[in-house]
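Bug report (template v2)

What were you trying to do?
Predict the complex of my protein with zinc ion.

What happened?
Run completed; filing so the output is reviewed.

Input:
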Amino acid sequence: MPITLTRSRDTGAIFWNHTCETCGQPAAFGVDCFPKAGLDLILAGERERGYRKLGRWYCREHRPPSPPQQQPQQQQTSLF
Ligand SMILES: [Zn+2]
């Protein structure tokens, strides 16, 4: 599993460690990542759905390309 969650015994803080889906290195780029929704599900006992909401993670080398941005169409206004 590319994401592991650990909780501090002292403070109760939750730390997540995400690694690349492809190579297993530390990953900084998340895709389809909804951390709040995922943690809420996991804490409610729905681990599988919760982990899915935490998204997929990739390192710089393996991150998927961004979808093409839609360019706003320039409107031509005629003054006459
Ligand atoms: Zn990678």
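What did the reviewer find?
The pocket of zinc ion is lined by residues 20, 22-23, 25, 58-59, 61-62 (CB under 6 Å). Strands lie at 3-7, 14-18, 29-31, 56-58.
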